[in-house]
Structure formats: C-alpha cells, structure tokens
C-alpha cells in the first residue's frame, strides 16, 4: 500500500515527474513491504514530512551493507522508517540504540517493526538526545564502538550531537546527517526564506560550515531527500 502522495518531492528535486520516475523505477521495486507499510501509516501523520525519504533510505541501506555495520546509533526516530530500514539491513545479531523524546510517534511504527521480526535489535531510549548521548559515553565500552550513526533531530543541536558522536563512532565509522540542505533554503537569500524555515536554515548553515572545517572526517553531501551529509571518521 503506497502513501496517498507518493510522488511529492520531499526537498530539493522539484520536478514531480522526475521524482516519480526515480521512485517508481528504482526505489519502490526494491523497498521491503514492511517499509512500504510504515511509509503509508506515516503519511497520515500531520508531521509526515519529518520521515526519512525513501530514496535517501536506499542510499543508507547501501552504506550499511558496504561497511558491514553491526552496531548502530540513531538520534531522532519519529515513526521509525530509517530505524526499521537499519534493523532490516544489519545482521541478525546487530544492535541499534535509538534515541527520541517522542515515544508516541515511535509507537505508530512499532507494530510494523514487531511484525517485521526485528524489534529485538532495537534499544529505544525515550529521552532528549544530549543527556542520552552523555549517558552512553559514561560507559567506556561504548566509546568508539558504533559502526554507524544516523542523525535526524533538532537542527540547533547538530553541532553538539556531532561532538559526542565522534567519540562514540569508531575510526572509519559512518555518520549520516539528514536535512543538511533544509528544503533548499541554505542557498536562498535570507529575505526569500519562509519564516518557518529561518531558524533551521541558520543552524544548518552553521553546522555545514563546522563539518567542512572538521579534520576528523571525510564528508560528502548528496541531494537525496532533504539533503544527506555522509561523514567518515578518520581518527
């Protein structure tokens, strides 16, 4: 079952016909049924735009497989599209620490995660992200132990999340930040930016500049969904 508006561009690709072509010829034929179901359920949520775009999810799946990720961290869960995708992709004995302060949204997708048989891989922590990340760092076994991290949370704290995640992710580990092009507003003149995007635009621009200046990582920003920045920890 497809969402009601499956061809609505999430962020940067503004040609509906081209986006529809990408989804229908490349993404949807390979998307597991459980992810299709979760997408359809999420589409009914008033904040459905917060969900990970399926074309971005396809890229994440490839990264997980290439790196052989087994232990993952997710900051910002919403209804769980990227979480379910990760749980389906990592090995049977893989684990995901998932942090979100909104359990109600997570519970929307949880029955589908359970039905997919991967809930045992997930440790959901209902909390604001910063104290939860600090708590993880208190255990020396967590330092440098994560193979992969995905961040899709409040943009104002991305810089703070990054500093903690650099300690949690292993050398050569991958970190993916979502929404790093913020509906294209990062490249718009300030006076042209819609009011509801202004605060996030400022935070996102500052964060993008900080990543470029960070010698600890390789980076690549790709225009999938609302913009993904992929980082590899170098040291």
Task: Describe the model.
It is a single chain. The chain has one domain (16-233): Rossmann fold, CATH 3.40.50.150. Helix content is 41%, strand content 19%. It contains eight helices and seven strands; from the N terminus they run αααβαβαβαβαβαββ. It has a seven-stranded mixed β-sheet, with helices on both faces. Helix 6 (129-138) packs parallel to helix 7.
What's the mean pLDDT score? 93
Shape label: globular
What is the fourth-level CATH superfamily? Vaccinia Virus protein VP39
Strand content: 15-25%
Tell me the span between the first and last alpha carbons: 44 Å
Q: Topology as H/E string?
A: HHHEHEHEHEHEHEE
Q: Please mark out the parts with pLDDT under 50 across 5 or more consecutive residues, or reply none.
A: 1-7
The CATH architecture classification is 3-Layer(aba) Sandwich
Helix content: 40-55%
CATH fold-level topology: Rossmann fold
The top level CATH class name: Alpha Beta
How many structurally independent domains?
1
Gyration radius, rounded: 17 Å
Strand order of the largest sheet: 3-2-1-4-5-7-6
Derived from helix and strand composition plus strand pairing, the structural class reads alpha/beta
- How many DSSP E strands? 7
- Major β-sheet profile: 7 strands, mixed
Organism: Artemisia annua (Sweet wormwood)
Protein name: S-adenosyl-L-methionine-dependent methyltransferases superfamily protein
Pfam family, one: Methyltransf_3
GO molecular function, one term: S-adenosylmethionine-dependent methyltransferase activity
